[in-house]
Design goal:
- This protein starts with 12 loop residues before the first helix and ends with a helix.
- The chain is α/β, with parallel strands linked by helices.
- Helix 2 packs parallel to helix 12 and helix 3 crosses helix 4.
- About 0% of the residues have low confidence.
- An eight-stranded mixed β-sheet has the order 1-2-4-3-5-6-7-8, with helices on both faces.
- Helices cover about 40% and strands about 15% of the residues.
- It has twelve helices and eight strands.
Length: about 300
């Protein structure tokens, strides 16, 4: 596996560093292996559970280009960021994802099984799970299904309480292809990025390239359609209440993507949790306030 050629056009230091650090591991699943993209930083022999960072919807591990080095430096821990199955730069053409029913190729169950296999086969020890936006929903699914793999949980402006998107009901041909082509539009993606930040100056050409590189991977459209048909991570309230491990909820005070009401709901429902607000910050504290985010996670550890 390799990155799209456009990755050579990245200009910002953190973007270039994470680009040059990406590697692929063959993660074994029933039906075949999935070449899984990830980065790792920090001493492999250090004490303390490693951190594993999970990105958001239609995104990639490039989301963590600023947080990975900050966390590795401040926490002294081993830090991983991985592309979720069907997203980022993972292989979407693997035989493990070829089924008679296309909707079975990328959905929460497949993503959870793939993530558990990555933890077991690549990391090999329990982790501190850090889920951003949709990655928070993925984290909650893994924690409740496989608590043996996770020591602590960090949620960054995470999904979980919102209902499943209605569009999943209408993802049939040709609407499905139209919807994903709409999401591919650079102007649409720029508008989403602008809404994600409090400080719009973060929406640079380099940031836009980081957010769009994975669209050039084979089967991007097919995987996104399959996931959207599955209706994703809506309404996880019942599972959230089952999370008993220590949990840190970090939330951008100016989040315009999910709003701010769910931050307090997480703190109320999770039995062992604390909520920290990240001021002057939108939906992506790991990008907009990486140093502050790493500082709060390190204190939590």
């Amino acid at each position: 596996m390799k990155l799209p050629e456009a990755a050579a056009k990245l200009t910002e230091e953190t973007s270039i560093a994470i680009r040059d650090s990406i590697q692929w591991a063959d993660v074994e699943l029933p039906g075949g292996v999935i070449a899984t993209s990830y980065v790792v930083e920090g001493d492999a022999n250090v004490e303390g559970a490693p951190l594993l960072l999970l990105h958001g919807f239609d995104s990639s591990l490039f989301e963590f280009r600023r947080l990975v080095p900050q966390l590795a430096r401040q926490s002294g821990r081993r830090v991983y960021a991985v592309d979720l199955c069907g997203f980022g730069f993972c292989d979407r053409t693997s035989p493990a994802l070829q089924t008679r029913n296309p909707a079975d190729t990328v959905n929460p169950d497949v993503i959870r099984r793939h993530l558990a296999a990555f933890c077991e086969q690549v990391i090999g020890r329990p982790v501190v799970l850090v889920g951003a936006s949709m990655g928070g929903g993925v984290a909650i699914e893994l924690v409740t299904a496989r608590p043996d793999l996770v020591q602590k949980l960090v949620l960054l402006d995470a999904v979980g309480f919102a209902p499943a998107p209605v569009i999943g009901r209408f993802m049939f041909s040709p609407v499905d292809k139209w919807a994903t082509n709409f999401l591919r539009n650079p102007k649409v993606r720029r508008k989403i990025s602008e809404n994600a930040y409090c400080n719009k100056s973060f929406v640079t050409p380099d940031a836009e390239l980081c957010a769009a590189l994975h669209l050039q991977m084979p089967n991007w459209q097919e995987a996104l359609i399959a996931f959207t048909k599955s209706r994703g991570y809506g309404s996880l309230s019942g599972k959230i209440a089952q999370v008993s491990m220590p949990t840190l909820v970090l939330w951008g005070r100016q989040d315009k993507i999910l709003g701010t009401k769910d931050a307090a709901r997480f703190e109320q429902v999770l039995p062992d949790s604390q909520l920290i607000w990240i001021e002057d910050c939108g939906h992506v504290p790991h990008l907009e306030k990486a140093e502050r985010t790493a500082e709060q996670i390190t204190v939590f550890l």
